[in-house]
Specification:
By secondary structure, chain A is α/β, with parallel strands linked by helices. Chain A is built from 10 helices and 6 strands; from the N terminus they run ααβαβαβαβαβαβααα. In chain A, strands 3-2-1-4-5-6 form a 6-stranded parallel sheet, with helices on both faces. The two termini of chain A are 14 Å apart. The radius of gyration of chain B is 26 Å and the shape is extended.
């Protein structure tokens, strides 16, 4: 038996799954799928290229967030960054704050280096667990950025109060910075302190954008359909509520 | 097997927890709660792996006499000492509490306090007039700042009202748009993880 208040949620979920499958089938045979440009992701190659030219490392961190959706989205970016670093022979340092995230990032980077035919370039000591205490993690990242003089700092995932502390340190060492998070309180700090910022849903689209995988692009289309539905419901709800009808609000509470 | 097993575990775990959200049923709730308890245990175990990684890196720094190896000595000694104090004396012991309150908390507060200066330096850089967008940003920021301090009210009684309007109408609308987009993105990532289309969590190439 369905829980009370979950019918509307289930309807949206079913709609998203159905539209995801529909668009996957539609895009499966296409070689080029339309997806708008995300400047922040385009500049990742530029950041890695800059680090390669300068002979300095690229730094990547997923923030203080645990295994949440933002962190999973960040894994897709890390995979891409690691592949590019392996391809251009740039050193990649990954710092982690959560012990559950650490072995995953290590595996992702190791697999990426192996897939690019450079397993010998992978150094497990460059994938570092620092601390699951916020300020200790920040000071650890500061130490890495200052000592290693990183040329690029990529911060993707879920961030808390450490966002500005990390971004300002990256700025101080002259790193090219790209950040991405769906944590709305931290977005202004990244926008102010970084060169490029992926805002909210752009981070979740990163995997699809970087890989051009039809399954992932299908999921992005499903996300857009749900977003259009949300916009329509907000507009319709505002009009109906203004004329005194609570029908739509009741429907959403089902 | 190395590829398939993590995907099966992810699918079963994710599907049961998701099902528990929609469907009422004692066995579903019990299984879902059990899975969530296991995840806490796994997270606790992974702390040991994290600690091992720290020791591995810094002991190697020491062994190879790498630059700044003295810092690694301090870190290893602190780590071992803190571990011994926590395990032998428990977290209720006087020495543990003393170090927590007089070393850890002070250092932590100092780090956090730096945010005040960093907000000023980041704001200074982003408010420089480089185009139409930064001009809008700077104007809105100046109006909000002026509306929040006493001198703003002294200049015009409308400034606090304008600051409140900027925060509660355009500011909130923008934030809610980002929140809705982010939430839908999180749902799609969650679905992709459960269905094995997003393999980052398994550590495989994604």
């Amino acid at each position: 038996m369905l829980r009370a208040g979950s019918i509307a949620d289930l309807t949206v979920l079913v709609l998203m799954i159905a539209s995801g499958i529909y668009y996957y089938r539609k895009f499966a045979s296409d070689k080029v799928v339309p997806i708008r440009r995300i400047r922040g992701l385009d500049t990742i190659d530029e950041a890695i290229g800059r680090a390669t030219e300068m002979g300095r490392p690229v730094h990547f961190t997923t923030g203080f967030g645990d295994l949440v959706a933002d962190t999973f989205a960040a894994f897709a970016v890390l995979d891409y960054v690691a592949r590019q670093c392996a391809r251009y022979n740039a050193r990649l340092i990954v710092s982690n704050s959560q012990p559950v995230v650490h072995p995953i990032t290590e595996n992702i980077v190791k697999t990426a280096y192996t897939m690019e035919g450079r397993p010998d370039s992978f150094k497990s000591s460059d994938i570092r667990y620092l601390s699951d205490t916020q300020q200790a993690y920040v000071s650890g990242v500061w130490g890495i950025m200052e000592r290693e003089k990183v040329a690029a700092n990529i911060m993707m995932g879920y961030f808390f109060a450490e966002s500005l502390l990390l971004a300002e340190c990256g700025n101080r060492v002259g790193a090219f910075q790209v950040a991405g998070t769906a944590s709305t309180p931290q977005l202004p700090f990244f926008v102010a302190a970084c060169d490029y910022t992926l805002i909210g849903e752009e981070l979740f689209a990163a995997g699809a954008y970087l890989t051009q995988d039809p399954v992932r692009i299908g999921a992005i289309m499903a996300q857009d359909i749900a977003k259009l539905l949300a916009i329509a419901l907000i507009a319709l709800g505002a009009v109906m509520y203004t004329v005194g009808s609570t029908f739509l609000a009741g429907l959403c509470d089902l | 097997m190395k590829t398939v097993l993590p995907m099966i575990v992810t699918f079963v775990g994710g599907a049961v927890v998701l099902l528990d959200y929609f469907v009422e049923g004692s066995w579903i709730s019990a299984t879902s709660n059990a899975f969530l308890s296991w995840s806490v245990l796994l997270a606790a175990f992974s702390t040991f792996l994290g600690g091992a990684n720290i020791l591995f890196i810094h002991v190697r720094n020491l062994k190879d006499r790498r630059p700044n190896w003295g810092l690694s000595v301090i870190l290893v000694l602190s780590l071992v000492a803190w571990f011994v104090v926590g395990v032998v004396g428990t977290t209720e012991s006087d020495i543990y509490k003393f170090v927590w309150e007089n070393v850890y908390s002070s250092l932590s507060a100092t780090m956090f306090a730096l945010n005040a200066f960093f907000i000023a330096s980041a704001a200074y850089r982003s408010f420089r007039l480089r185009g139409a967008e930064s001009a809008i940003l700077m104007t809105a920021a100046v109006l909000v700042m002026m509306g929040r301090v006493g001198i703003g009210e002294a200049i015009s009684s409308r400034l606090p009202m304008l600051a409140d309007w900027l925060m509660s109408i355009p500011g909130t609308a923008g934030m809610r748009g980002i929140t809705i987009g982010g939430a839908l993105g999180a749902v799609t990532v969650g679905l992709r993880v459960i269905l094995g289309l997003e393999r980052g969590g398994t550590g495989m190439s994604v």
